[in-house]
Amino acid sequence: MWRLLLLLLPLTELPSHAHYTSSDVVYHPLPHFWTGVGFCPAGDINYNGISAALEAPSMQLHLRLIGALPIGAITHIRIHWLLELVQFLEYSTEGVPQYDYEKFDRFVDLLQELHLSPVLEFMANPGDVFTANPERNWFLWENFVKSIINHQLARHGATRLSSWRYETWNEPDLLNYNRINFTSASYLEYVQAVRRGLSKAGGRRKSKQLYRALRGPAGLFKSEQRHPLCWELLEVCNQQLAKCPIDILSYHRKGLDGSAQEILNGSLALLTKIYHDYPQLQQLPVANDEADPVAGWDTPRDFQSDVRYAATLIATVMQHWQAKLEGGVLAKLESLSHDNAFLSYHPYEFSQRTLLAHFRMNETSPPHSQFVQKPVYAALGMLAKLGTRAANLEVVNMDSKHSVQVLRSISGNGAAQYMATIFLSPEQAGPQLTAYHHKYTLNMSIANESAFITELLVPHSTDPAHVWQQAGSPAYPNATLREAMRRAQTPRLYETGPIWQYNSELVVNSAHLPLPWLMLLRVCSAAWPKLKRPQQLEIVEVTKSEVFIRWSEQARSTQCLKSYEVWFRERAGSDWLHISQGWHLPYPSFQYAPGGNNSVNGFYKVRGVDVFDERSAFSQIVEYLEL
């Protein structure tokens, strides 16, 4: 049995200025810089191929699940070849390409519905426009970029587009990406044309506040001989930074051995070289678009199935935060993105680098897809609960070989009204048991009455891959096994009841916790904003008599959420049934498969429960009718 013992002592008030101090702990503004994911669609790289991949029901459900993490967990999604959804129609009499945006618009609308902002990589060749007219690319790229942005400004408005990200062609030095045969001269011409297109879009509606920053060159930055395009762009920018077409220096650095430290070391080494050779670039923010533990998303690796990958991702965030605070070459780190939004395939449902395990159920008529959340998905949900200010990363020694990393964060106006702390054991150890007892002083400041909640990710208990493997790893898991996997997919809730006195001493006894483990401790003041009613309740068919239910959260109201409740009644006038009773639902979704002769047709509503066991108002009632 696991044991967590939480004890408490008196607290002090926090001063209200840029950096907040509680006893000897200093808190710094914490931008949530890790909230990007990405993937490359399967299939042919053209209008028909990319359309088929992104419009497939499996992909649409997959995206709905990605969008069903807590608010702010994932804000941006970077999809290679997304602009292949723009269809070339014809040339005007003036020789200007005319485009159809219908499929691109429809996909962008879905992302907006899911509160996901696209990262627009200007990376496409609709109708072979750019390879057919290389001598006019200086104009064609400017026109293409400007027309896309103007079209979306008319549909979504400048404020919404200001949350989008814009980037140059992905890894242009690689032959499998450089499909329009860039030379050094034509690549630099392309980047300048993209910059002009972004700058000219909007016409008179432009303002300094809505300036669209361009990222690039999104390169691997191997040797100058092997990857000349990216290095030559840096040379141009270093010579005259004021005329540099990029505003944020983006690069790709993955780990070598699956560890977070290797990802960080790669960034430190690359930026040290760049700043030595191109010192003017120290003025630009930097972003690692593909901060993954090891290259090759589709290569199966056991650690990507379970809590070890979740621990590695959280360790990556923690270590980059500390590097950013230390003011070295990562002082201007703007964002990290994880290339883990791919669709896995048989027989590697869990072991590929993905957020979700994907089961393609080919034995049903019609075939359909089932998804199970992996621990790394849950880890992103835990990170979303961090506050607006955070302390330095602490390392607490467990024994001569192991240590625990601790990241404390707070939110509140002046005094802390909310505190979230993540504890992380060694990310690549395990699964194994360790005898460890440590007394940890948090030195929190929580005003008024307070309550706390702890959630854990540990091997086996919160490990749906283990449940699947114990059942023989079937290609088509039945309804009973799917439910068992889903019951293991969320963090394990530890409730020790609300605490009505002021305390700040935490004792962690992990003698029975298998490594690696993650713990999120949240302490909430009664003065923190109360839960608001869930919004935008949606019910989507998965297969016959099975639905995926998702809803949206409202900002600042769910930091102190404990769980959601989903209610159902079959017809008006019948009793409401609490269909999620017995489930821990910390994230805004639920998959409902009642089984037997029970119907999914009827009315649904959702509400939240906070750490004080107070309920929010119910969402609007939504009726679902199976076709």
TrEMBL record:
GO molecular function: L-iduronidase activity
SUPFAM superfamilies with a match to the protein in the record: (Trans)glycosidases, Fibronectin type III, Glycosyl hydrolase domain
Top-level lineage group: Eukaryota
Keyword Metal-binding found: no
Alpha-L-iduronidase C-terminal domain location: 537-626
Signal sequence residues: 1-18
Domain Glycosyl hydrolases family 39 N-terminal catalytic positions: 28-493
Residues at the catalytic site: E171
Record-linked InterPro entries: FN3_dom, FN3_sf, GH, GH39_C, GH39_cat, Glyco_hydro_39, Glycosyl_Hydrolase_39, Ig-like_fold
Keyword Hydrolase: yes
UniProt keyword list: Glycosidase, Hydrolase, Signal
Gene Ontology BP annotations: carbohydrate metabolic process
Family membership: Belongs to the glycosyl hydrolase 39 family.
Name of the protein: Alpha-L-iduronidase
